[in-house]
Amino acid sequence: MHRRNFIKWSVALALGTRGWGATVLTSAHRPLGIQLYTVMAQLEQDFEGTLRAVAELGYREVETIGAFGRDPRFVRDLLDKYGLKSPSQHMAPGDLYGIFSRRDPRNKDPEALKKRCLELLTPDRVDSVLEGAVSIAKALGQKNVIWAIIWPEQFATPALLDKFCQALNKGGELCAREGVVLGFHNHNSEFIPINGIVPYDVLLENTDHGTVKFEMDFYWATKAKVEPRRYFSKYPGRYTQCHLKDSTPEGEITTVGKGVVDFDGLLQAARQAGIEHYYVEFDRSTDPMTVIRESYKYLEKFF
Predict the structure, then answer these.
(1) What is the rounded distance in angstroms from the CA atom of residue 34 to the CA atom of residue 228?
(2) Quick check: is 30 in a domain?
(3) Contact (CB, 8 A) for 183 and 208
(4) pTM over 0.85
(5) What are the Cα distances from residue 170, in Å, to 93, 123, 124?
(6) Domain for residue 6, yes or no?
């Protein structure tokens, strides 16, 4: 990122002068979805049975991890069988899903997972990563492909951050040509200022507003002590999806409705921002089926 661009961005942020169109009108209620990462262990034990159970609980949309290392046509057939739609995937190129899943012993080693992510999910590989993701998306009937994570090493300097912005812009154009939308999912580290600059804000400011969208994760934003509603208001039209994930007062993930996240206010703001898809998620739960059942019971009054 050139220094003059950082200065321009900083001034605009301080003055609050950026406005990209009128506020989006409140959308109709949408089906409640789930990010299937939550039940990945169950999927590996009984793939079809887990999808059936998810549907029986009342979920109607699912966000996938690629095609779970399986033939996308097989996955699509099962989704159709149980009345599940999949609007979105978190991209998992190469053998990445195998590392996530229990089928690969490397999932017990977070450093091995990080190392492989840094090898596969890099700005230099944006073309091949997205070509594979778009192919899966078309087979699964998905509109959105999500770049799920950026590691601190990938945005530690202005030059690295600028490189990632350029890669997202390139990927956004590629996806648009194929009728798919590229999105970016946040964690908490992107909100930590580096020399007074918030990397997440730079991503919003320096990616194409029409072709690069964002998926707001409520838990990670809460952990970073930022207010999602401020982002929805300041960047209208940029957010299309969100993760419904709750936090304890101590900052640990908990079942939706049992923590400190203000879902009533956030969901109202999300709808006003035009967010179309809402996915329950709980990372690394020891009892995910109970979690998603209780989360659904809490959230169904909003949907």
Answers:
(1) 20
(2) no
(3) no
(4) yes
(5) 18, 10, 11
(6) no
Q: Do the beta carbons of residue 145 and residue 134 sit within 8 Å?
A: yes
Residue 34 bridge partners (DSSP): 62, 280
| Residue range of the domain that includes 113 | 36-302
Pairing outcome for strands 239-244 and 253-254: unpaired
Distance between CA 284 and CA 108 in Å, rounded?
12
| Cα(218)–Cα(208) distance, integer angstroms | 23
Q: How far apart are CA 238 and CA 24, in angstroms?
A: 10
pLDDT in tens, 138-193: 999 999 999 999 999 999 999 999 999 999 999 999 999 999 999 999 999 999 99
Residue appearing with tokens 């959308």: 27
Burial of residue 68, with CB atoms counted within 10 A of its CB: 0-12 exposed, 13-18 middle, 19 or more buried: buried
Residue-wise pLDDT for 111-151, tens only, equals 888 999 999 999 999 999 999 999 999 999 999 999 999 99
- How many distinct structural domains can be found in the chain? 1
**Token code pair at residue 106:** 């490397």
- Give the pLDDT band of residue 22 (cuts 50, 70, 90): very low
Which residue carries 């040509």 as its tokens?
177
Asked if residue 8 belongs to a domain, the reply is no
Rounded to whole angstroms, the Cα distance separating 63 from 12 reads 35
CA angle 80, 100, 199 (to 5 degrees): 100
- The CA-CA-CA angle for residues 215, 276, 139, to 5°, reads 80
For residue 215, what is the domain's CATH number?
3.20.20.150
DSSP designation for 208:
-
